[in-house]
Amino acid sequence: MDSLWTQLEPILSRVEKPARYIGCEDGMQRPIHHPSKVAWLLAYPDIYDIGLPNQGLQILYEILNERPDAVAERTYAPWVDLEAQLRLHGLPLFSVDNHLPAPAFDILAFNLSSELVYTNLLNCIDLARTPVRAEHRAAGDLLIGAGGHATYNPEPLADFVDFFVLGDGEEVVSEITEVVGAWKAAGKPSREGVLRDLAGVTGVYVPALYESRYSGAVLLGTTPRVPEAPERIEKRTVADLADWPYPKQQLVPLTEVVHDRLNVEVFRGCTRGCRFCQAGMITRPVRERPADQVRTMVQQGLRRTGYDEVALTSLSTADFSGIEQVVAQTVADPINRGQVTVALPSLRVDAFTVGLAAEIQKARRTGLTFAPEAGTWRMRQVINKLISEDDLYGAVESAFSQGWRRVKLYFLTGLPTETDADTLGITELGRNCAELGKRHSSGASVTVSVGGFVPKPFTPFQWFGQNTLTEFDRKIALLREDARRSKGVQLKWHETKASIIEGLMSRGDRRLGPVIEDVWRNGGIFQEWSEHFNYGLWIDALERAGLSLEDYVNRHRTEHETLPWDHLSAGLHKDFLWQDWRDALAEVGLPDCRWTPCYDCGACTGYGIEHVVASAVAPAGGSQGTGQDLSRGGAVPVSLGIRTSKPAVAGV
């Protein structure tokens, strides 16, 4: 198995960022391959700058390389300049660790975090010298796998991916390794055979073993065609994060990447119940990492990497028990000499006090991003983001009073039942926050960032008909006009056409496979990048396939309609999601079940307990804000996400 380095090195001088492809990071492994070992090539279908920090890929990279029967290396989508050079010189996709050709591996496994990378996945498979369509692959070809949040509706990729993994990957990758290892030891006798064996692994979905039935344009269902394939695929859930203190050696890049800092996951899952948020729904139940383990991972990680910033990551970080102590100890650690910044993504606004504002960035102050998501209290009840204007203003006031000068507010538009008054509430909140900033600094600024809402599988909004492109553009125009009259407020928005195509992929079925392939074959790669996104390619491909954008994207679904992902399970009861959808339309908010009675969503069922985390009070100590009274009675804890870095997807 020979390295391609001698052939790659001469052409790297012709590309924009050669450092993307050379490896050599602190924390990189150079696994020793052997015919008896299963060789994984872990792929992120976007450029190195975006993919390198991905925690999921780094965790699996370490776990697999700790096994005696496996090796794992990494690859990322080559940017257009390198791809041109690879195709010109007849070179395949390669690993960045040992620079081995992709065909030298047994499994090419993708981490999919967004639907707009689907054409990149096809491009990488083709560069790996593997037939793009699964039905054309022979026993000796790569097995193509995929996992990540964007695989909870895998049907649009069913023609191209051999197996999908639903849920947490820490345990299941070892089980897949054992299945593939036995197949490899037997000489890879039958591709159909190993796919049937993989279907027997809990959490693994093999689309070739299922068939979808239609009546005209209506999907009737997706059912197994062989006895080895279960009728329903259950997601995998790691019950105790303490057993998985990864990554132990986070990769430190040689070139600039996004989220370039130490990242330590403090807990997984979220029960805040934001109805638009797929991540919060599919990662339930909440599982906390022990505080002592968090402190150890932070201290050891900072010393090993040399970073001066650590992000304590989760979907709602301030809900972590003992968050204040972990932050204080990290900042006060004498080894850090007061130079370490702690970033708290998804921080509750009611926990963002003046004291915490002063504590978390004693070393230096960067911008803060608050995510109220909707412009009015009515809309926040609809989406179950139960924060009041006073909560937001209190958090912004705390930030500006402690020296921050830049605040970003993130919103969605096109949410269910949204009116023009709700839309204009976005800029009103921005204006009011800017006025608060001016009290503390004449240079204070507020950026209002708006994204088009995309309904996602396994959320209460999966039945909602997404806004049309015309309606999205009309709402952006309303905001632009209003923002012109708002001193100190800068408005930014995401490409509305990209939101439409994301919606197409999000809730599509197998009939979209030819559409994805059509777009790819006509040059449609890096569709999540604004400079490469091509709406026309998608519309033309849909027309050639005889499919309707309106039917997939803009149409409301009915209660008993078969959804493309109904044969998969994210651990949530479908009737719970339907009732939550009805509650949304009735503007009824639900408190977090971590300190209220169980709603029987289904997420904790397999653990033999009513709640994985239950408390009579909010998990994070200190004062807790309350929203307005809800129709189910009583005041409830309120929350607000904080994002401390910009989204990876390019916006407008």
UniProtKB/TrEMBL annotation:
SUPFAM superfamilies: Radical SAM enzymes. Signal peptide: none annotated. Pfam families: Radical_SAM, Radical_SAM_N2. GO terms for molecular function: catalytic activity; iron-sulfur cluster binding. Residues 260-481 form the Elp3/MiaA/NifB-like radical SAM core domain. InterPro entries: CHP03960_rSAM, Elp3/MiaA/NifB-like_rSAM, Radical_SAM_N2, rSAM, rSAM_horseshoe, rSAM_sf. SMART domains: Elp3 (SM00729). This is Unannotated protein.
